[in-house]
């Protein structure tokens, strides 16, 4: 007679394993690359970062070479990267807020119950993608703009601060992408997240110049557009900025602080 094995006791069965980071990254990569908004925003980064730099330098190369010029040509070689952050924050926000708008975020959390892991996977992918595209955009802008400077005898070699501004552009956009992901998880609404970020970068940042005294100077230095944006400029138009790597360390700390608050909030709020 064949013995019949007893049914397993559900109370003593081993708990199901939770998906690790690698499956979460694969799932988020599929979601990120199968929507049109990702490609449109990345195209906007390239168009703004490379296209505007080439256009501006092409129109002003003769003036930059003239004795009347009071600006360093290096300040213009990544000029378009001053506007590319607008597209970067839209991408980072949409990665999160579009799922809250459609209700898909519940499926994401059901598949990967560790909400922090979902946030980490989104942040890694957005930062990696924006670093690559941001650096490539800066290099394309340099390749398009420098021939105009060469024609005027003021060409810039790809070294020193100019080289740092190339990968610094990628680092700045990557940090903004992580910041946008964190703000997206905090506010859960596309218009609100984009408005907060664009307002901080392009409205509040310039307005702090109106604050008088040493406190105003300090605010100007630590605003994200200045603390992080200095990495993306070979020579900044703003003489009040910190040294590029010092400023970027401050910017990274600001991004980490917002991300920590978002992760804490994510564990304690309903989906």
From TrEMBL:
UniProt key word Secreted: no
Keywords: Membrane, Transmembrane, Transmembrane helix
Annotated transmembrane regions: 39-61, 76-96, 124-145, 165-187, 194-215, 245-266
Entry protein name: ABC transporter permease
Organism: Aeromicrobium alkaliterrae
């Amino acid at each position: 007679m064949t013995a019949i094995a007893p049914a397993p006791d559900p109370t003593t069965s081993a708990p199901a394993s939770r998906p690790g980071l690698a499956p979460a990254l694969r799932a988020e990569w599929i979601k990120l690359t199968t929507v049109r908004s990702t490609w449109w925003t990345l195209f906007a980064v390239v168009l703004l970062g490379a296209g505007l730099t080439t256009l501006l330098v092409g129109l002003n190369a003769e003036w930059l070479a003239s004795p009347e010029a009071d600006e360093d040509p290096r300040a213009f070689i990544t000029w378009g990267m001053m506007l590319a952050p607008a597209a970067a924050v839209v991408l980072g926000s949409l990665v999160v807020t579009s799922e809250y708008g459609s209700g898909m975020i519940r499926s994401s959390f059901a598949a990967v119950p560790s909400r922090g892991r979902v946030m980490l996977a989104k942040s890694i992918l957005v930062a990696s993608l924006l670093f690559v595209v941001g650096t490539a955009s800066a290099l394309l802008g340099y390749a398009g703009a420098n021939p105009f400077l060469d024609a005027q005898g003021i060409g810039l070699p790809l070294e020193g601060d100019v080289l740092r501004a190339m990968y610094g552009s990628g680092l700045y956009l990557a940090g903004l992408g992580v910041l946008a992901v964190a703000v997206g998880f905090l506010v859960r609404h596309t218009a609100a997240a984009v408005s907060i970020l664009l307002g901080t970068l392009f409205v509040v940042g310039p307005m702090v110049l109106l604050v008088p005294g040493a406190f105003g100077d300090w605010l100007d230095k630590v605003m994200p557009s200045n603390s992080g944006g200095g990495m993306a400029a070979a020579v900044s138009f703003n003489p009040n900025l910190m040294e590029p790597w010092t400023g970027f360390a401050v910017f990274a700390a600001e991004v980490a602080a917002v991300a920590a608050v978002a992760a804490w909030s994510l564990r304690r709020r309903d989906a």
